[in-house]
Amino acid sequence: MGSTDPGGRSVPVENMVCALRRLAPGAALRPVSAELRVLASALRECSASELAVRCPSVVVRVVLASQLRALDRAMTGVFGASCPEAARLVRAARYSGRRRGALLDRLRAEPGLRAAALGWADAVGGQLLADELRGVSPVPDGEDGRRAAELVVAALLPRPEAGGREVLPGGPRGSGFLAVRSVRVGERGFQVGIRADPPVELVRDGGRLALRALWWNGLGRVSDDLGHEYLILAKDPDGTGIVRHWCHPRPAPGVRVLRLESAGYRGECLRLGAVSDAGTFAEVLVKRELTVRLSA
Questions:
Q1: Helix, coil or strand: residue 108
Q2: pLDDT tens string 126-183
Q3: Is 284 in a helix, a strand, or coil?
Q4: How many C-beta atoms surround the C-beta of residue 260 within 10 A?
Q5: Which of 126, 164, 151 is nearest to 37 (CA)?
Q6: 65 or 240, which is more confident?
Q7: Measured between alpha carbons, how far is residue 207 from residues 200, 211, 218, 273, 274 in Å?
């Protein structure tokens, strides 16, 4: 299927939660743990950020476990952020006692490793882990609730399905920078291919040249004319060319029109000719919607 970006990471979690509430019939979600089932049930009635208020203890356990997994990966030096705290963590892990057992027990038993882990947690925003290492009872906030919702969605999503039958009649649909080129329906889902051609221009900026470009963020929501929504499982990572999106489940019986809502653009400006080329970035929220009429 090639390199893809999992939809649970690139599509706003609020959109994914909304899609789960209005999911088209025929969906086959993956089984999850008891704790994630509790959060998934709560998300039917509350927003992602409100999870921290609705289910605080479960959010703490789920997010803390995720932060511990990230810490474990960062200790290898292969994964994670590149910062001084990460380098100190790798050194501390290399010369630690390498005790067996749970990572949290190991951190409690080795003050040097715990101090390095605490510095790393503060640097990367792992507040629940930092509180735990300080001996303070962790209290989740709205961001922890959103992170817990992201973990729920990622666990529920089935694997994308390759192949399928083309159901887009005629030529491409769309205008401006975007045009739908393909809709292929498989056994469990469908794939939408959209041609993204955002502008790139070279301009003069105060005596220097600047390259200004837009990169498309892909689709942010997929719905139909019957009121159902569909999960975006994955998408091609590049914001230009033919950008494929893998969606689940397949279009519901009786659906004639798919509504494809853009997630906006990422703007980039790179100033050329300096000793060190300076770039700036910004999110450009353009709510463009494409409609696709399906063949029988």
A1: helix
A2: 999 999 999 999 999 999 999 999 999 999 999 998 888 998 876 556 656 788 999 9
A3: strand
A4: 24
A5: 151
A6: 65
A7: 19, 13, 34, 10, 11
Q: Report yes or no: 75 and 129 within 8 Å, Cβ to Cβ.
A: no
Cross-strand pairs, 246? 191, 234
Q: In the structure encoding, which two tokens stand for residue 234, read together?
A: 């994955």
Highest mean pLDDT among 147-161, 262-276, 280-294: 147-161
pLDDT over 80 (residue 71) = yes
Q: Residue for token digits 């080129």? A: 181
Q: Among the ranges 64-78, 98-112, 188-202, which has the highest mean pLDDT value? A: 64-78
Residue 87 has φ and ψ, to the nearest 5°, of -65, -40
Q: Cβ contacts of residue 50 below 8 Å, gap of 6+?
A: 142, 145
Residue showing tokens 């057992």: 101
The dihedral formed by the CA atoms of 179, 24, 3 and 73, expressed in degrees to the nearest 10:
140
DSSP one-letter string for 222-276: EEETTS-EEEEEEE-S-SSEEEEEEEESPPPTT--EEEEEE--EEEEEEE-SSSS
Amino acid at position 11, single letter: V
The token duo for 177 is: 């920078």
